[in-house]
Amino acid sequence: MKRVDFPEPVKALIGELKRLPGVGPRSAERIAVWLLQSPKANSAPLAESLLAAREAVRPCPVCGFFATAEGCDVCEDPTRDDRILCVVEQATDVLPLERSGAFRGRYHCMGGKLSPLDRVSPEDLRIPSLVRRIEAAPEEIEVILALGSDVEGEATANYLVDLLRGRNCKLTRIAQGLPAGGGLEHADELTLMRAMQGRRSV
Ligand code: ZN
Fold first, then answer.
1. Which one of 19, 78, 104, 165 is most buried, counting C-beta atoms within 10 A?
2. Could you tell me the pTM of the whole model?
3. 56: CA distance to ligand 1 center in Å?
4. Domain around 142
5. Taking a C-beta distance cutoff of 8 angstroms, is the pair 108, 64 a contact?
6. How far apart are the CA of 168 and the centre of ligand 1, in A?
7. Closest CA to 130 of 95, 174, 90, 160
8. How far apart (Å, rounded) are the C-alpha atoms in residues 178 and 187?
9. What confidence score (pLDDT) does residue 40 get?
10. For 158, phi and psi rounded to 5 degrees?
11. Is residue 196 included in any domain, yes or no?
12. CA of 37 to the centre of ligand 1 (A)
């Protein structure tokens, strides 16, 4: 007796869904079945918006943030401060910073972080364009390194400090410390150490 499984087209759909980040085999099956059976599922608009977004959105040639043919919302904004450049790992890192309202300068998205294990070396990141942007600035700018506090983020920050020191910029790093609303007893040692190092006068 042949063991019954989903028909081929459904298996193909599950196979594609499984490749999405954070979607395991079980979730892929659940999503596929929902797309096939739920009256709320709207496959055509879903497929169309997926293709349209893929077609229309590309990295901004200047900063690496998401851009369309009309340009990038950060680079096109004349009200932003050109004298502050915030360096982040990924284009998606811009969004939480924007939502925080804490920053009104320009961004540079590296497109990743240095990681020998994943074979990511400086040539794979948007480093030459970062150097060009800094050197092309009419006056000295502040370059804020807003990179992750993991090993790769640290390595990337150290690399950039060595590379950019002495160029047309003042280098700073965002502070690392305690999460909002948390007490000292819940913080790990590394976080506490960095919070202590990052202290400022009040
Ligand atoms: Zn841009």
1. 104
2. 0.82
3. 15
4. 66-173
5. yes
6. 20
7. 160
8. 7
9. 81
10. -60, -40
11. no
12. 41
Q: What is the CATH number of the domain that holds 166?
A: 3.40.1360.10
68 Cβ contact partners less than 8 Å away, ≥ 6 residues apart: 56, 57, 58
Ordered per-residue pLDDT tens for the chain, 202 residues: 888 999 999 999 999 999 999 999 999 999 999 999 988 878 888 899 999 999 999 999 999 999 998 889 999 999 999 999 999 999 999 999 999 988 999 999 999 999 888 888 888 899 999 999 999 999 999 999 999 888 899 999 999 999 999 888 899 999 888 877 778 888 888 888 888 888 888 8
Query: Which amino acid is located at 14 in the chain?
Result: I
User: Does 110 share its domain with 138?
Assistant: yes
Same domain as 77, residue 48: no
- Distance between Cα 42 and ligand 1 center (Å): 33
Ligand 1 center from residue 78 Cα (angstroms): 12
**Ligand 1: distance of its center to the CA of 153 in Å?**
22
Q: How far is the CA of 2 from the centre of ligand 1 (A)?
A: 56
pLDDT for position 104: 93
